[in-house]
Design brief:
alpha/beta; 7-stranded mixed sheet; 5-stranded parallel sheet; 11 helices; 425 residues
């Protein structure tokens, strides 16, 4: 028996949370263990900047894709382009389907540690009428579809922007308290509405008065905190935006508008929708998952019943809202916890940081301006900061370039310093 065989660490998913976790883990453990990353795409898609790109008249496919294989090659990490099909936590096996060419057969990978960073599926297919009459900005195809419509086919009619109801798992499944969200993430609807209004003005096709925001919640973007939301709503109202809250959920989208489950409706030529974020089907019913399929974890991001299983990003039950900043925080925790297990860093260093969610968001407003939100009041904190101006647009643009130059590996101190500087000045 070979007692010197290295442990196998398997990372499922490689967008923001998965990439950062894998890279920092390699930094901490050096060559102590093998790391394999499975991702169905060959690139990371920089999703947060899609609205900004399309509403500046740009094609987001040209500038928002970061190739993954060269990054992992440099780190000495194995990269497999494949789709995850099944997880067996008892056998410590994962079934994958390679995605480079059609017709591949299922393969099995075993692990000693598993990091689930698979995100969720966006349930547009559960919204009646979306395929025929809906728009969104959640990927480059849909973003370009909306860009083309606004630039070439838009007739100047009403536009609605908002979210379907988020079906969150039972928060009691977690060993700590989290809020219950009515929508998965509502920074994007606010951002899209502001920047779209500016784009309509540029094109001579309207402005804020064409647009109505809607939300299933009492307040849109409720995770930002009541004080910030009231400021945003006052600004939006003065600009001429419409607003409708407590719609419960989307019932259907039609050619002429949108219907809600509370019985209300809005007329609209353009319906820009952000759907329910739903766990992948193979996550549902697993002993590591809650009643919806999100992964249960503690403050160390470790599953309490299967301590070799970790989760980061939107797949985690505690990621509420589904926000990149939260996955960023989680990635450092997971990398350090596994490094601690492998005796690569001291326990004191690994355990001094536990999961403390915070909302940090940069949103485009059009015209070279953006808003910045930093808030933790939804989680019991006292921070509520809202700022607007050109500098925050410049920061949003610069962050994407820095992220690509760093190959998705930003030090935690850099992130904290950047947030402190933005809060202070």
């Amino acid at each position: 028996m070979n007692t010197n065989k290295k442990l196998e660490i398997l990372v499922l998913g490689s967008n923001f949370a998965g990439l950062q976790t894998a890279r920092h883990l390699r930094e901490y453990i050096k060559d102590t263990a093998n790391i394999t990353v499975v991702e169905k795409k060959s690139y990371l898609l920089f999703i947060p900047n899609i609205p900004m790109e399309i509403l500046e008249g740009k094609d987001p496919t040209a500038d928002l894709q970061l190739p993954l294989a060269p990054i992992y090659k440099e780190d000495g990490t194995r990269f497999i382009q494949a789709e995850v099909k099944e997880i067996d936590v008892y056998k410590k096996e994962v079934k994958i389907l390679p995605t480079e060419r059609p017709g591949s057969a299922l393969e099995k990978l075993r692990y000693d540690y598993l990091i689930i960073a698979l995100g969720n599926r966006l349930a547009f297919d559960k919204i009646e009428g979306f395929a025929e009459y809906g728009h969104t900005v959640t990927d480059t195809y849909q973003g370009n579809k909306l860009r083309y419509y606004i630039e070439n086919e838009y007739k100047g009619g009403p536009i609605v922007v908002g979210s379907a109801k988020f079906n969150q798992g039972d928060p009691k499944k977690l060993p700590f308290d989290i809020p219950v969200a009515k929508a998965a993430c509502e920074g994007p609807p606010v951002e899209v509405s502001l920047s779209l209004a500016y784009r309509l003005q540029q094109l001579g096709k309207g402005g804020p008065r064409n647009i109505t925001l809607f939300t299933p919640a009492e307040l849109i973007a409720e995770d930002a905190g009541e004080e910030i939301v009231k400021q945003l709503l006052e600004i939006a109202g003065n600009m001429g935006f419409g607003y409708k809250n407590k719609v419960e959920d989307i019932k259907r989208i039609t050619k002429d508008g949108i219907e809600f489950t509370n019985g209300e409706s809005l007329e609209a030529e353009v319906k820009i929708i952000f759907p329910n974020w739903e766990p992948h089907d193979f996550m549902k019913g697993l002993p590591i998952s809650d009643d919806k399929g999100f992964v249960i974890h503690g403050l160390d991001m470790r599953n309490p019943d299967f301590p070799e299983v970790f989760t980061v990003g939107d797949a985690a039950a505690g990621t509420v809202p589904k926000l990149g900043t939260i996955g960023h925080i989680q990635s450092y925790i997971v990398a350090k916890q596994i490094a601690k297990d492998l005796r690569c860093i001291p326990s004191e260093e690994a355990d001094k940081e536990t999961f403390k969610p915070v909302v940090v968001c940069y949103g485009d407003m059009g015209g070279g301006k953006a808003f910045y939100i930093h808030s933790d009041v939804w989680y019991g904190g006292n921070t509520q900061i809202l700022k607007m101006g050109r500098i925050y647009y410049d920061i949003k643009v610069a962050f994407k370039h820095l992220y690509f130059q760093a190959g998705g590996k930003l030090s935690h101190w850099q992130w904290k310093l950047g947030m402190w500087l933005t809060d202070t000045f």
